[in-house]
């Protein structure tokens, strides 16, 4: 297996990222790349991003969550407050999100500070979700131990009965998180592993950018 892994490689050459084409604001480049990924036929779930938090056990952990909005410069997603990541973010507010679109040979890494959105905003988004997803938020005590799949499905059935023929309310332990970026790193694959990397960092009220060695 080790020999097989050592032979797994590809040469990148689908694009370039150069100084002259860089916008001053990283949000402009993020929007440009995101829209290109969204329109690319080989990119599935363009809004999937890896969220890395520092756990209560002191170890970092990454998992995929879905970006649902970019509002006033903040990246917003939703989750269970009592989940492992929820507890981690309650303890450590510094997080990282990572977008990877292999079809475009591009990555974006964003570091920032996370906080909860308002209950009103969480409620508004919750109401927009499919009814099955709303019930799932009630049925799943996220990150807790479940003995069997049957137990989980029974909880879902119980909530279907409980909320039958009525609007499903927002669970107290569920809502949105908002990440306020402090840096953006854009990565474009290039031949011979000489990839293009540019790091944007907030400098006062403006963004500064620098090329990084690959």
Structure, explained:
By secondary structure, the protein is an alpha+beta fold. The protein has helices spanning 2-6, 26-39, 84-91, 119-128, 131-139, 149-162, and strands at 48-54, 60-66, 69-71, 74-80, 94-101, 106-116, 174-188, 196-203, 206-212. Strands 1, 2, 3, 4, 5, 6, 7, 8 and 9 form a nine-stranded antiparallel sheet that branches. It is globular.
The chain-level mean pLDDT equals: 94
Q: DSSP helix count?
A: 6
Radius of gyration: 20 Å
Sheet having the most strands: 9 strands, antiparallel
Question: What percent strand?
Answer: 25-35%
Shape: globular
| Count of β-strands | 9
How much helix, percentage-wise, in residues?
Answer: 25-40%
Structural class, from helix and strand content? Answer: alpha+beta
- Measured between the Cα atoms of the first and last residue, the distance is 27 Å
String of helices and strands: HHEEEEHEEHHHEEE
Low-confidence stretches: none
Short description:
This protein has 214 residues and is an alpha+beta fold. It contains six helices and nine strands; from the N terminus they run H-H-E-E-E-E-H-E-E-H-H-H-E-E-E. A hairpin with a 5-residue loop joins strand 1 (48-54) and strand 2.
